[in-house]
Design goal:
Elements lengths: L16 E7 L1 H7 L2 H9 L2 E5 L14 E5 L3 H13 L4 E3 L2 H5 L4 H9 L9 E3 L3 E4 L6 H8 L5 E5 L11 E4 L12 E5 L6 E8 L2 E8 L6 H6 L3 E4 L16 H4 L4 H15 L3 E8 L6 E9 L9 H21 L1
Parallel strand pairs: 1-2, 1-3, 3-4, 5-14
Antiparallel strand pairs: 6-9, 7-8, 7-9, 8-12, 10-11, 10-13, 13-14
Helix pairs in contact: 2-10
Length: 325
């Protein structure tokens, strides 16, 4: 933490904000791109890799710790470090991050919100958790009143490829072939467009991605089985420059996104995440959140170098003000 009298904007003297990072190799490659590091460096920010095989207290000094690693051991290390180094900001708390690794609990925060008639309505598709016994799934789904088609998602998001293997189910007999634990979510027709809402502190950036096309009743009657489908969040699936129906392509209202973002930041206790949102086809103001991801692929977000740099600088300014006041 900077001492009283020091500046963060670099106008009077050159300062360094040291960000220690603990990221997987894949995340480091996609996030810490050379152009980002160069831009941040010009603003007085340096990124230093954390060696997870050495005691964290022996490394640094850091102003901020930025991390996305799984596991109880790492969480314990960060929490212990916070106790002995309260002056270092940790983005974000491990226990809060853990909440997003369960696909059912992550969306419960949206269910608990009351955003009706606030420039639109935001909800969650009807869903249920299946923990065991695949043969009982058809009966459980029928009792819950869920309707086909259904999206099947692994319950836990553990960073493995398997945790991102999603499937679309068109008939009841296929349900007993699934592998619990999983979440079953009603598929909502949304015109084949998904809105990926990136949250970086107070900043909000929205991009369009191509998604699954609408499913008609005729298709539902004719197409049996389980159909795996890929993730639709990649930059290659961008729909921002496509010639789309304006009613489908129109972005969610800004006031709605600001309210949703603020509420979820507070409820989740997180600053870095993205929201996958769809608009119910044929409506203008009915939206559903279908997924929330911690520390998403910011490298795919337009202008992320500027947005993330500003976030780090403003975050430390805010923390410093709270300390001296």
């Amino acid at each position: 933490m900077r001492l009283e009298g020091e500046k963060f904007d670099g106008e009077e003297e050159e300062q360094k904000l040291v960000v220690g990072y603990a990221l997987t190799l894949k995340k480091k490659k996609s996030f810490l791109k050379p152009e980002f590091e160069r831009f941040a460096c010009k603003k007085g920010i340096s990124f230093v890799a954390i060696d997870v095989n050495r005691p964290l207290s022996d490394q640094g000094p850091f102003d901020i710790i930025l991390h996305k690693l799984l596991g109880k051991d790492w969480s314990a290390i960060v929490e212990d470090y916070q106790q002995t180094h309260p002056e270092v900001a940790v983005i974000d708390p491990p226990d809060a991050i853990q909440h997003l690794y369960n696909r059912h609990s992550m969306l419960q925060n949206v269910v608990d919100l009351n955003l009706s008639d606030f420039h639109g309505r935001v909800g969650v598709p009807r869903q249920m958790v299946i923990m065991k016994d695949p043969l009982s799934i058809p009966d459980e789904v029928a009792k819950a009143g869920l309707k086909l088609p259904l999206v099947a998602k692994p319950l836990l998001v553990d960073g493995s490829a398997k945790s991102h293997e999603l499937s679309l189910l068109f008939d009841w007999s296929s349900l007993s072939k699934l592998e619990p634990p999983l979440v079953l979510q009603e598929f909502v027709n949304h015109g084949g467009i998904l809105f990926k809402i990136y949250i970086v502190g107070d900043a909000i950036k929205v991009v369009r991605r191509f998604s699954l096309p609408n499913i008609t009743k005729c298709q539902l009657a004719k197409v049996p089985g389980i159909f795996p489908f890929p993730r639709v969040s990649s930059a290659a699936a961008s729909a921002d420059d496509a010639d789309l129906d304006p009613h489908i392509a129109e972005l969610p209202p800004r006031p709605l996104l600001e309210r949703l973002s603020k509420e979820l930041r507070h409820r989740l206790g997180l600053r870095l995440f993205n929201i996958d949102m769809i608009r119910e086809h044929g409506t203008r103001d009915i939206f559903y959140v279908i997924d929330i991801n911690y520390f998403p692929g910011y490298g795919k977000m337009p202008d992320y170098e500027v947005i993330f740099t500003d976030f780090l600088l403003n975050f430390m300014k805010s923390k410093y003000r709270k300390l001296v006041n």
